[in-house]
Amino acid sequence: MVDRGLLYREWKQNQVVILLSMVFLVLANPLSIVNTYLSYQGCLDRQDPQYCDFIVNYTSNLIDINWVPGVILAVCFLGMERSKGTMDFILSLPYNRSQIFQTKFWLGGFVIVLSQLIGFLLAWLLILVYQPEHVYYFKHSSVGVIVISFMAYSLVMAAGALTGNAFAQLLTAFAATVLPYLIVALPILNIEFIFGVNIWDYFLSDEDYFALVRKLYYLVPMGYVANDWLTDSKYILLIPVVMSILFYLIGYISFKKHPSERNGYFFLWNTLDRPVQILVIAFGILGFGLFGYSAGHSMIGYIFGMIIGAVVGFFVSYFAIYKKTKH
Question: From which residue to which does any coiled coil extend (predicted)?
Fold first, then answer.
């Protein structure tokens, strides 16, 4: 499954990035508590103690950006390898594709999970030492951030298994985080602007509408960048767990089945080129049409915006998808 020789190769190739990621993920949680404690001490120096509270509140915390190292690791493990042309060398080694992907994936997953678990233990020890008055969402936030950062890593790894360079990997991953919103919201917004109606008024009350939006919000990976999930049900974290499994399977199957000789192109599987181009053009038409209507409040502005969107969508998709980048 995971090969020792490949692990050593990945370690030597990405040693600096792995170490920096580990240091950040280990220190982010305890440093946030140290920062809160120093702020409390500063308050005591400046004001009467009755106006100073030592409260550790994880609804606003440094570990909210713990998903960033996972994205960087995934780009280094796949996207940069393809961009530099070194992936061809790895594939020529006496290992099958399954071993290569599993080694890369689980090395990054191990770094992300273990580093944050160590950070969690250090933060827990600091809480015992400093003894703050209140600690809010410590366990829930720490566990949740591990899950969400692993989900982000899995998503970018899956994007890297589908694409032929680092830029395409990042763009595909970002598109996947907002795609459900674009598919639903853009057509509805266009209909509402053109006909001057609110579609949801025909089906839901205001309370039901906001409740539905809040539930759908967690079906979009981008929704977990903010920490609103902390104050909602703890079972919401099951969604990114399922997403992580899904992204892992997509990445594994794609890396195992798709060719590597299209390195440098946007997608390794050329069957995806045309459908994605059509989707980009459609989003361009709807998005620019909406902008044109908002600017001029007329059908002329809407049609003009759609034409611009079609042209922009075509050229952006053509040069991004069909032009091979040089190694």
Answer: none
How large is the average pLDDT for residues 34-51? Answer: 83
Can you tell me the distance from the alpha carbon of 273 to that of 321, in angstroms, rounded to the nearest whole number? Answer: 6
Which tens digits make up the pLDDT trace of 46-68?
A: 877 777 888 888 877 778 889 99
Residue type, 13: Q
C-alpha–C-alpha distance, residues 9 and 81, integer Å:
12
